[in-house]
Design goal:
13-stranded mixed β-sheet, 22 strands, 14% helix, Phage tail proteins - horseshoe like beta roll fold, Phage tail protein beta-alpha-beta fold, 376 residues
């Protein structure tokens, strides 16, 4: 009997399919969809691939690894073939949120709605749910006016809202869209040590794309209560002491915004530059963490590898940006983790606890955006 921790299953149409030759499941923080690809290759006399032939595009499917659900979505691609000696079936798909990525939204205008209400309105035609967790008040204040562009997909509109409010959306194992603040609680789900529990690793440290000053400027809509410079000169500036101060980026906001929105937009852009400062890839055996749960995006971990990181003891605290679960024909079961500095995931307005002076590129800390002269 196979080890339950090494079994991948697709549940579809009331049946379970678990005789796979290769498996790949990917979840990415900030991506609206998770993806899967399974294949079955066997001699022509085998029965497993023939059973898999029942699977077809548009079938609803839940993906389980080690007995734990990781995706709720749809099969989108079925590729079958055979010759005199063997037959092969490949199925691929994405989580349920794929419908908002592909489908155009109905053009309309929202006035005075909160962020979550607009997102729920865009999800409703697709039968999808929004999950919110630990959102600060600044992210949920009413938006004076928001227009859906003609031909724009629902996801493009949602992502545009996210840039405005400094929010990143991602999906979960149940096919929901999640809008949450990643809380840096300082706890690590695992400690990786060079030469002990790392099968393979690489890391890229870079200063390109980093800016000592990052300014977002724009305009707000005027009203009887607010006019002049308060709406015509909205600006916020975030600073990163971890790079040269003369390097600056000035951005024009994509939407009308007030000062708080400008701060959130600058914080998000700064976080995205932080995400590029350190890009580490760690490959580990199996699919589960030490506590028996699947590895997940936003998990925090510690990596000690003097070969990768020029810190005093070769250690660095990182967060998981992407998880790729794989199983290959020889029976090798692996998880590949893409890691970044934790502050790249802690970007919502009001989340100042993890920010501060950055002594070097590896700290990932920065000074949150502040209003500039002429704004209100």
């Amino acid at each position: 009997m196979p080890d339950p921790k090494l079994v991948a299953r697709i549940a579809a149409g009331g049946d379970l399919y678990d005789n796979w030759t290769t498996v790949s499941v990917t979840r990415t923080y900030g991506s609206p969809t998770s993806e899967f690809a399974f294949s079955c290759v066997e001699p022509s006399s085998g029965a497993a691939a023939k059973k898999v032939l029942k699977l077809k595009p548009n079938d609803r499917a839940q993906i389980f690894l080690a007995g734990i659900q990781v995706i709720d979505g749809f099969i989108e691609v079925r590729n079958a073939g055979y010759d005199a000696n063997q037959h092969q079936v490949i199925v691929q798909g994405r989580s349920k949120v794929c419908d908002i990525v592909d489908s155009s939204a109905d053009p309309r205008e929202y006035k005075g709605y909160k962020l979550d209400a607009i997102v729920r309105g865009l999800l409703k035609p697709h039968g999808l749910n929004l999950v919110t967790k630990s959102l600060p008040p600044e992210a949920q204040k009413a938006i004076r006016e928001f227009r859906i562009h003609h031909g724009e997909t629902a996801w493009e509109a949602i992502e545009r809202l996210g840039r405005m409010r400094g929010v990143i959306f991602t999906d979960d194992k149940d096919g929901n869209l999640v809008m949450s603040q990643v809380e840096n609680q300082g706890g690590s789900v695992a400690d990786f040590v060079e030469g002990v529990n790392i099968l393979a690793a690489s890391a890229m440290l870079r200063s390109e794309g980093m800016f000592g000053k990052l300014q977002v400027s724009g305009q707000d809509r005027g009203s009887d209560e607010k006019s002049g410079a308060a709406v015509a000169q909205v600006s916020a500036l975030a600073t990163n002491p971890g790079t040269r101060a003369n390097r600056q980026l000035i951005m024009l906001a994509e939407e009308p915004l007030d000062t708080k929105d400008a701060q959130a937009r600058a914080d998000r852009e700064m976080a995205e530059t932080i995400a590029r400062q350190v890009e580490a890839i760690i490959t580990v055996p199996g699919w589960t963490r030490p506590d028996g749960q699947l590895w997940d995006v936003a998990d925090h971990c510690t990596v000690k590898s003097p070969m990768l990181f020029p810190t005093r003891d070769g250690s660095l605290d990182l967060a998981i940006r992407q998880v790729n679960f794989t199983q290959s024909a020889p029976g090798q079961t692996l998880t590949t983790l893409q890691l970044c500095l934790p502050n790249a995931l802690n970007i919502l307005p009001g989340n100042d606890a993890t920010r501060g002076a950055a002594p070097n590129i590896l700290s990932g800390a920065y000074t949150p955006a502040q209003p500039q002269t002429g704004t209100a």
